[in-house]
Structures are given as C-alpha cells and as structure tokens.
Design goal:
mainly beta; 7-stranded mixed sheet; 1 helix
Amino acid sequence: QVQLVESGGGLVQAGDSLRLSCAASGGTSSIYDMGYALGWFRQAPGKEREFVAGLSWTGSTTYTADSVKGRFTISSDYAKNIMYLQLNNLKPEDTAVYYCGARRSGTSYSAGSSYDYWGQGTQVTVSS
C-alpha cells in the first residue's frame, strides 16, 4: 500500500512560481524498494486528467510534457521519499488540481491508467 500526500498549491498571479511537494510512504519500505515510480498529473475543470511530468523508477530520468517544458521542473529526494514539481512563469491555463501518482516500474510514465495510487490533489489557481 502506497500513500501519497501533495502540498504547496495556492492562488498566484500570472508569472509567479510555486513548488509542489508529494510525500510518499509505503509503510516500512521506500517507494524505490517497492518498485514504484512517481509522476505528476493535473486536471482542469471540465477536462481530462493530463500528464505533466514523471520520474523513472530510480529517479535518474525525468519526463516532462511539451506543454510545460521549460517552465516546470520535476525532481526528487528519494532518500526522503519526496517528489517536487517546480512551477515557474505560471499562466492562467495552468490552473488545475495537481495530483501525484505512483506506478509500477516498467509501465508507461505518461498514461494515467499506469498509476495504481493517487494523492488527494492540491489546487493551483493562476489569476491573470
């Protein structure tokens, strides 16, 4: 069983920055030892949940959606079981609930169906 808790969302103005965090726990085991990789998705009102950024199982490789490349950066501290998403130069179209998810290593990092566990989400609202 994996538990995920996001934090760091808020209401900001266009051009501002935020850093989201996802704290992962798997009981007495680390996410790495359990064979899970983490990723970020977002869902805007009336839209499907979409991939934002993801990590390989070891955390050594990152993947970023073209729509946010150059503005959003994913990183992790696997020793602490924490994943981050740095959001820079935010735009109103980035307004969404941001979720972190955990998938088994070897599955598609960009497909929501690959993720077995999700956090409760954190709201990011960008005003113009």
